[in-house]
Design a protein that fits this description.
The chain has four helices and six strands; from the N terminus they run H-E-E-E-H-E-E-H-H-E. The strands form two sheets. Strands 3, 4, 5 and 6 form a four-stranded parallel beta sheet that branches. The chain has one domain (about 30-130): Transcription Regulator spoIIAA, CATH 3.30.750. The longest helix is centred in the C-terminal third of the chain and has 13 residues, at about 95-110. Helix 2 (about 55-65) runs parallel beside helix 3 (about 95-110). It is of the alpha/beta class. Helix 2 links the parallel strand 3 (about 35) and strand 4. It is elongated and about 50 Å long. The termini are far apart.
Length: about 130
């Protein structure tokens, strides 16, 4: 039996689940909800570390799903610091246009995911430091 004003997710998890859907704040960063897509290695960059359409499409799907904060897969910050193949690179200005396009496209998705994204979401990039001997 549904109570007035209650969504399906609130009925499933009760008050504890409801908190996940509330706006949140992390040190001044406002988030639409408490769902976070954690940094992972996704292997979607090209052989040289440039952002690809596969990177963008994967993150757009997370945004459409209502994630409040997206943290990209690890990115290497030195040319010789790659930890895994097809890892994003951020060690030079030449990578900025692709990463900018990724961020812009994910943020533009905000208009298509009304239920959870009405207050926006954020995209962070995980920087990976791989030391070589």
């Amino acid at each position: 039996m549904e109570r007035s004003g209650e969504s399906g997710m609130e009925r499933i998890g009760g008050t504890a689940m409801k908190k996940l859907f509330e706006k949140s704040n992390i040190n001044g960063l406002s988030l639409a909800n408490r769902f976070i897509f954690s940094a992972t290695w996704d292997g979607n960059a090209d052989d040289n570390g440039f952002c690809t359409q596969r990177n963008i499409d994967m993150l757009v799907e997370r945004a459409r799903g209502g994630v409040g904060l997206i943290i990209t897969g690890m990115a290497y910050v030195q040319a010789d610091g790659r930890a895994a193949p097809w890892q994003l690179a951020v060690h030079g200005d030449e990578f900025v246009p692709g990463l900018t396009e990724m961020t812009k496209t994910v943020h533009d998705t905000q208009g298509t995911c009304k239920e959870f994204c009405v207050n926006g979401f954020s995209v962070f990039i995980e920087q990976a430091f791989c030391l070589r001997k």
